[in-house]
Amino acid sequence: MFKQLGTISVILLLLFQRSLSGKVTLRLLRELVHDNYQSQYVVSPFMVKVALAEIYADRESEKDAALQDEDPELDESFSELGKRLNKTKSSQFMLGSRLFLSHVLPVRESPRIWNTDISTSIDFAQKGEATRTINDWLAKTLEEQTSNIVVPKELDNGTKGIAISGISVTGRWLHRFESLHKTYFVTRDLTGQVAHSLCVPMMHTFNSFATMATDNARGIFIPFSYGEDMGMLVLLPRNGIETKDLLDDVQLYFNTTLSAPRDMHLFLPIFRVESDKKLGSFMQGLDIADLLRDTKFHRSFDHNAYDKINEFKLRTVVHIQPNRPLIEMADTHSVKHDIIEEVFDVNQSFVFVIKDRDTVYVAGRIEHLEGLTPKVNCSQKFAESGYHLRKLRRGKSYF
């Protein structure tokens, strides 16, 4: 069905081995978010990269030993990708990627490139059993009760293989959040007027954070507890700018120099966003020439490689929550109104990028929090005048 998938995976691995991991995930992200207008969107370019590496490794294992590529740089690229996988697991990300291949294909030893098997033989003719096998593996990998990444009607006797990847990120914060506030999250139109408001639970901390500012956005980097360079960059669009614009241009903000950390109050909503995506068509439409710009490679590859992957599916889950129970504050309105220090309040539509110094692991945009956050009731009705009042009185605050 997807004749070019094998070729694309080879070309991208050639790109990976030239140590452009940051550029690869950024360019993959740009392609993934192109023309997407969902109000809540989340995706992992890193797991796309991992899956493509597995497809390539599996294809290499089909060759006779004498014909397999011997390339120290390629071995090093797999090793580096393995280190990144270990880094994410140390940050308590749940993730996995596997090729489910038809049992009618020649049986051979599955290659192991992350100290685990990358492929599983399966009988797709037994639709129910095959579906359960795939879904149970993903649910166990992401520590979820159930998974429905595959349904029986998607399988038949002609299915040769399905690539499945998943990642689940729960923030493990370097700076502990201490209190819980019930306050309003707003969605604004391009003129800056409030189009929708929702009372949501916000977690609060007072700590040192690095920030950034451009003509289109304000941002804050919230570090994770593992590694000073890994964390979540949150971007708030300025008036007249849409979150889609920020996500389309995320490379600009990825490379923007952050300020030195300084003390401030941070209010961050508690939410969970998830997405299951079919990416087979995306693979076909990749702009390989663009992805390969600025790279050099000399290895040969087979443009007519036998492709046995009928579909590629990706599950991405992000759960933003505190690391420990919070002290619930009764009157958030008064607390915020009396703050005299600098404030960064994520109380409007935003973009988030989970990253380290050179790789994007997950990125997404949140227009509103309906259905993504626990239901709570605020002590006061929403009043736009209150926001304007605080903005005028607190010059340093980001309300």
UniProtKB/TrEMBL annotation:
The keyword Signal applies. InterPro entries: Serpin_dom, Serpin_fam, Serpin_sf, Serpin_sf_1, Serpin_sf_2. Residues 26-369 form the Serpin domain. GO terms for cellular component: extracellular space. The keyword Signal applies. Residues 1-21 form the signal peptide. Keywords: Protease inhibitor, Serine protease inhibitor, Signal. It comes from the Eukaryota. GO terms for molecular function: serine-type endopeptidase inhibitor activity. PANTHER family: ACCESSORY GLAND PROTEIN ACP76A-RELATED, SERINE PROTEASE INHIBITOR, SERPIN. Belongs to the serpin family. This is Blast:Accessory gland protein Acp76A. The lineage of its organism: Eukaryota, Metazoa, Ecdysozoa, Arthropoda, Hexapoda.
